Amino acid sequence: NAGVTQTPKFRVLKTGQSMTLLCAQDMNHEYMYWYRQDPGMGLRLIHYSVGEGTTAKGEVPDGYNVSRLKKQNFLLGLESAAPSQTSVYFCASRPLGLAVEGQYFGPGTRLTVT
Amino acid sequence: GENVEQHPSTLSVQEGDSAVIKCTYSDSASNYFPWYKQELGKRPQLIIDIRSNVGEKKDQRIAVTLNKTAKHFSLHITETQPEDSAVYFCAASIRGNQFYFGTGTSLTVIP
After folding, report:
1. Which of A10, B19, B27, B108 ranks highest by number of CB atoms within 10 Å?
2. Which residues on A lie below 8 Å from B103 (Cβ)?
3. DSSP labels for chain A?
4. What is the mean pLDDT of chain B?
């Protein structure tokens, strides 16, 4: 099992450009999450999904959109990138129910917006 | 929404000593509290978790305690080793939908 994978690993964008980050998991997990991690601020939830075809806003959703057309994939889109979106982005997934272990994280995507 | 505060932000201990990291949360409906370890340049990894129906949980050198009345929970690492050096994050969740993270504690274990 590859677990949770993210594409790309690094990206540099110019202000106003758009891009899509891809998260894929092969563990048949129901829940998927997108976080951003900034120095001194921990992990903040952008959007999450509780199943195929569903999405919901987290703490910091502005400037981002998501889609979950397939259960194994969760896409994060930036329509018009801004320097404030420079961050490390982590995707995570977990199975339904808290009787099992918590979230599994992907390796992260380091995004720089100039 | 939920607000999780974590202290201290940095912690240095001598190898073999204990380390304690504390977190408080604001929403009494939170019922799941995981702890993650993140090494430099790596992804966060779950090291231990506790649910609101339990007061303490241990796993070898790591333990977590929860005080629901005071709304705080703590991570205890005993007999620290240099490989314990990392950033540790606490989190709180209501039924596992959204997770709210603390701002992290950078632990350095001095050989």
Report:
1. B19
2. 40-42
3. ---EEEE-SEEEE-TT--EEEEEEESS--SEEEEEEE-TTS-EEEEEEESSTT--EE-SS-TT-EEE-SSTTEEEEEESS--GGG-EEEEEEEE-SSTTS---EE---EEEEE-
4. 95
